[in-house]
Design goal:
mainly alpha
């Protein structure tokens, strides 16, 4: 739903990576996949040099989210 919201706000062209399951709107399916909600691919995310990472920390992904923060990314 985060990807859909970003597109609804007219900011889809700013996305450099999306979840493996993001396929809507159709434009989202063409954006590089960077893991899933619970298992974000930290290396793939860092490689794209985002200025903001949209994530929701949960017990399942908290380590990855904290690692992204510790690497200096805004999460």
């Amino acid at each position: 739903s985060i990807t859909e919201t970003v597109f609804a706000l007219g900011l889809g062209e700013r996305l450099v990576g999306v979840s493996t399951y993001c396929d809507y709107p159709p434009e989202a399916a063409r954006i590089d996949k960077v893991g899933t909600f619970l298992t974000p691919n930290v290396e793939a995310i860092v490689e794209r040099r985002p200025d903001l990472v949209l994530a929701v920390p949960t017990p399942g992904n908290r380590g990855s989210v904290e690692l992204l923060r510790s690497l200096g990314l805004t999460v």
